[in-house]
Amino acid sequence: MTQNPAASARFDAKFDVCAVGNAIVDVLAPCEPAFLEAQGLVPGSMQLVDEGQSAALYEAMNAGVEASGGSAGNTVAGVGSFGGRAAYLGKVADDTLGGVFAHDIRAAGVHFDTPALSGDAGTGRCLINVTPDGQRTMCTFLGAANQLTVADIDAAVIGDSAIVYLEGYLFDPAPARAAFEAAAKAAHAAGRKVAITLSDSFVVGRWRAELLDFITASADIVLANEAELTALFETDDFDAACDQLAAIVEMAAVTRGPDGSVIVCGDQRVAVAAFPVDKVVDTTGAGDQYAAGFLLGLARGLPLAAAGALGSLAAAEVIAHWGPRPMTGLKALTEEAGLTLA
User: Fold this and answer.
1) What is the pLDDT of residues 110-141, one digit of tens each?
2) Is 290 helix (H, G, I), strand (E, B) or coil?
3) What residue ranges do the domains of the chain occupy?
4) Residue 36: other Cβ atoms inside 10 A
5) Among the listed residues 120, 126, 124, the one whose alpha carbon sits nearest the alpha carbon of residue 146
6) Is beta strand 46-48 parallel, antiparallel or unpaired with respect to 15-20?
7) Residue 228 φ/ψ, nearest 5 degrees
């Protein structure tokens, strides 16, 4: 059985996971592929847009639903659904959407008290168009979300968290990158583990060298999907990319859609099967919820295969319905599946 190198970080931790990310409200709507083509959008991609572009796309979209999101925010909401202890650092504006985000994440049982931004920038939003096959194409107006700075990094909360989880989407603005460095430094000073998600292959394409530098110097755990991993090392050889990643981090989890995931730890490769799903409705949040289960499992000291199984369970729950956060309590599903959280 492959052991969990993060197990030592859990002792005396108030929180299992503290996430640092873009605080975003999602707007999800169904669409046909022709709509994406007409809007000049690359299917399955995430791109940043300005406020005007966001407003124009919103007007063109079908009727949809609004839900608090943001990749790392979805993850800690998932941790809360498992019954785990989570905290979140992210920036919203002092506006209506900011109030919605704060209410939703606290209702999920997540500690959140980052001061809201006052001024012209509104709370960030992500417009997500979902095609009939469940694939999501995202256009994000960051607004207040990318105003997170070093001053917003609460060293006490970081130090009280077994794992500090950093959202790759937040790597774009330089002040937020400095906040990443501050969070990682505070975590390691307290004997905690630092995890980062690559978030999107387009993020990797923009910041490949910088991400590699940060991962090598400051990360213990990496989460990615197969496309992001191969982009990071500029190769189509999955196994070779896993080997390169293993050389610079303690462990990693790489998701492969219906083929499950692979957990990488030194020279060990742990294959984790995907949980079956009757119908894939919306893949939004699949990676976020996998991270919730996997990181919680690590924080609780579970073996790597057991942590990966929790990730697969959470991902299966979220892709079976609209929205990026669990609709069925993950703690109950864990018990039904015969899995453990301790």
Assistant:
1) 999 999 999 778 899 999 999 999 898 999 99
2) helix
3) 7-23+71-99+144-336
4) 18
5) 124
6) unpaired
7) -65, -40
SS3 150: helix
pLDDT tens-place string over residues 279-318: 999 888 999 999 999 999 999 999 999 999 999 999 999 9
Say yes or no to pLDDT of 6 above 80: no
Measured over all CA atoms, what is the biggest interatomic distance in the chain, rounded to whole angstroms?
54
pLDDT at 55 > cutoff 90: no
Residue 237's SS3 state is coil
* CATH assignment of 7-23+71-99+144-336, among 3.30.70.360, 3.40.630.30, 3.40.1190.20, 3.50.50.100: 3.40.1190.20
Question: What is the rounded distance in angstroms from the CA atom of residue 229 to the CA atom of residue 238?
Answer: 8
* Residue 209: closest CA among 183, 164, 177, 242: 177
Instruction: Kindly report the pTM of this predicted structure.
Output: 0.89
- Burial of 222 (C-beta count, 10 Å sphere; 0-12/13-18/19+): buried
Helix, strand or coil, per DSSP, at residue 32: coil
- Section 194-201 average pLDDT: 95
Q: How many CA atoms lie within 13 A of 4 on its CB side?
A: 24
> Which amino acid, residue 299?
A
Closest C-alpha to 22, from 161, 123, 121, 154: 123
CB 297 within 8 A of CB 253: no
d(CA 192, CA 186): 9
The Cβ of residue 307 has, within 10 Å, a number of other Cβ atoms equal to 25
Is the pLDDT assigned to residue 76 strictly greater than 60? yes
Confidence of residue 241 (pLDDT cuts 50, 70, 90): very high
Q: Which residue has the higher pLDDT, 323 or 3?
A: 323
